[in-house]
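[step 3/7] fold_predict: job queued, chain A
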Amino acid sequence: MLNKNQIAQRIAKELKDGYYVNLGIGIPTLVANYIPAGINVVLQSENGLLGIGPFPFAGDEDADLINAGKQTITTIPGSSFFDSAMSFGMIRAGRVDLTVLGAMEVSETGDIANWKIPGKMVKGMGGAMDLVASAKNIIVAMLHTNPKGESKLLPQCTLPLTGVRCVKKIVTELAVLDITPNGFKLLERAPGVSIDEIRSKTAGKLIIENDVPEMIFTE
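[step 4/7] structure written:
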């Protein structure tokens, strides 16, 4: 199985030169540490920042530089700061090429639930609803199952929805999957993970075509 950093590293392979990218709270923020060499992307944060760099080393943190998840960050040359109204204007205008979000559930049709669990304290919806309605491409970084071992990849979401038919791809500790009109299409397996294990932990319709390769990591 992949750890959280490896999930982020695999998602970083989806970045393309010139992309404006928003990274959600949790695993998605780690993508900033794995931007491939030779790829120029601009990371955007809802609280009003363009040009996020990798996380700072211990002792180098600046408490005035934080992302939307209140984590300390670094900036790159040419970065800019502005208010949240301008930030959401950029999002709603469709200027974000890719959004990477965490999720509590994703349905086989691409619905996402990531902001509320009834009866439990959750930070709130944040900018997720604007992002899923406006971003050109949405990738979800999540664990395949919940703490009870139940699948989070479902025929239909059971939690309140953040967005409908918006997710394009999912990367979990077990697999990379595309959302297709016919369900979850298995693209890659984590090293050492079998198709049978992925099948047993996917409640939604799983499509398997030909041989499914293992993910390759260079580090």
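[step 5/7] annotate
The CA atoms of residues 93 and 134 lie 7 Å apart.
The mean pLDDT is 92.
exit 0
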